[in-house]
Amino acid sequence: MHQDQRYITFLQQNDARGIAEIYRLYADKIKRLIVTNSGSEEDAADIFQESLVDIYRMSTESDFVLTCPFEAFLVLVCKRKWLNVLKKNGRSPVTKSFDDVSSFKQEEWDSAGEYARREERETTIMELLEQLGDKCREIIKACMSGDHQEKVAESLGLTYAYLRKKKSECMAGLAALARQHPLFK
Amino acid sequence: MENYFDQIQDYLDGQLSADGQAAFEQELRGNAELQKQTAIRREMQDVIAKRLKAEQAVPALRSTLKAVAAAQNKPTTRVIPFRRIVIGLAAAAALIFAVVMSGVFSNNGMELPAMEATISRGVNSDSLFNAASKAYNDKDYAASALLLEQVVTADTQSAAARYYLGLSYVGNKAWGPAVTHLARISSGTSVYAGDAAYFAALSYENLNEKTAAREQALKVPQVSPYYKKAQKLLGSL
User: Fold this and answer.
1) How far apart are CA A176 and CA A168, in angstroms?
2) Taking Cα atoms as reference points, which of B181, B178, B182, B168 lies closest to residue B139?
C-alpha cells in the first residue's frame, strides 16, 4: 500500500480537513496544467473536482488499495478528462505534456496508468449505461440495487420471469455497446 | 445447438441448472470469445453495482469539495487572514446552499441538536465559531466542518467545537471523522460527553462496528436527552 492511500481515505470518509489538504497540495498544479493547455481556471476547477469524485467512486470497493503516488493517478485522470472535453468541443489538442510537471519514476507512472485505465473503463461503462433506453436503464439499475430479484420485479410491476428475460436482453444490449467501444475491443 | 452467449446472464446470476452450468463451463473452457464476453458482462455488472452504491455519498462529497474549493480560492493576506477565511467560507456556504436545500444531508430521522454561538475564546476563533454555528444550524454541514476544523486546530481543548465538529461530520454522513472527534469527547469529562457518546454510537453503527457502537451507547447517562434512544440502539445492536 502506498503512503498516499490516506488521500483515498479522505475522499472515502468525506473528511473536510483531509480534502482541504488535497486541494492545497494539488489544485494549483492541475490548474496550471489545464490553463497552459487551452483551458480556463473554471475548467480546471471543474476537472479537478470531477476527477476527485471519480477517484472516490472507483475506490469504494472494499479491497481498493493504492500502490502508486496519488498525484500521478490524479494527474492522469485529470488529463484524460481534459482531453475528452477538448475533443468534445473540437478545441485544439493538448500540446504541453501533463506528465512533465511531476518527477515520478517510470514505474510509478506505469502503475498510475493502470489505475487511470481502470477508472476510465468504469466511467465508460456508466456512460454506456446512460445510452440505453429508459426501460433498460431502469431494469439494470433496479437489478443491481442489491435487493432480491423477486422484490425488484414486484416493485417494477413485472413478473419475475419477465424481469429475468429483460435483464438478460438489456445486459446483452449494454455488452453490444461495449463491443463497439475501443476500450473493450 | 446451444447458444451459450444467450446464457451468460443466467450463468452469472447462478440461474442455470446444475447440468446447464456444467455444460456452460465446459464450453467456456474452450471458447475464447465466450470467455471474453462473460468477463466483460461480469465486469459491467460489478462496476454498475459498485457505482450505484457509491452514488449515494456523492452529493455530500461534492458539497465538501465545493466548500473546500471556495475556501482555497479566497485571497490570502497576512493582515486579516481570519476575516477573509470567514468571508470565503460564507461564500462557500452560499454556494452550496442550494445543494443543502435539496435534502442531501437528511439523516433518516437522526436529528442533530442545534448549535449555540459562543463568545469566549478570542475574536478570530469566535468569528469562526459563530460562522460555523450559522452554517451548522442551516444544515450546511460541509461548511461548518471546515470552519470547526480551524477552530479545533487553534484550540485543541475546545470540547464544544470538537463536539459540533463531530456532529457536522454526522450531518455529512462522514462516519470515520465523526467517530474520531465524538469518541474523543465521550471519553472526556465535558458536558458534551454523554451526548457525544450517543452520536459516536450511531456513527460506529453506520461503520458496522457494532462492538464499538455498543460501548459508546452504554456510556450515555440517564440524564442525557439521548438516553432512551441509546437504549433503543443497544437493543438493535
Assistant:
1) 12
2) B168
Measured in degrees and rounded to the nearest 5, phi and psi for residue A113 equal -60, -35
User: How far lies A121's CA from each of A132, A181, B33, in Å?
Assistant: 17, 10, 19
- Residue B44's pLDDT is 93
C-alpha to C-alpha distance for A18 and B145, rounded to whole angstroms: 11
In angstroms, what separates the C-alpha of A9 from chain B's closest C-alpha? 9
CATH ID of B58-236, from 1.25.40.10, 3.40.1350.10, 1.20.58.480, 1.10.3720.10 = 1.25.40.10
Task: Pull the grid cell for residue B174.
Answer: 462522514
User: Cell 457494532 sits at which residue?
Assistant: B210
- CA-nearest residue to B46 within chain A is A144
For chains A and B, CB pairs below 8 A equal: 125
Q: What is the pLDDT of residues A148-160, one digit of tens each?
A: 888 989 988 989 9
Q: Which three cell numbers stand for residue B11?
A: 450463468
- ipTM passes above 0.90: no
Per-residue pLDDT for A4 more than 60?
Answer: yes
Closest CB from B9, B45, B60 relative to A14: B60
Cα–Cα distance between A118 and B9 in angstroms, integer? Answer: 23
Please write the tens of the pLDDT for every residue from B106-154.
445 478 888 877 655 555 667 778 888 888 888 888 888 888 888 888 7
Helix (H, G, I), strand (E, B) or coil at B2: coil
Per-domain boundaries in chain B: 4-55, 58-236
pLDDT at residue B4, rounded to an integer = 83
Question: Among A59, A46, A48, which residue's Cα sits nearest to residue A7?
Answer: A59
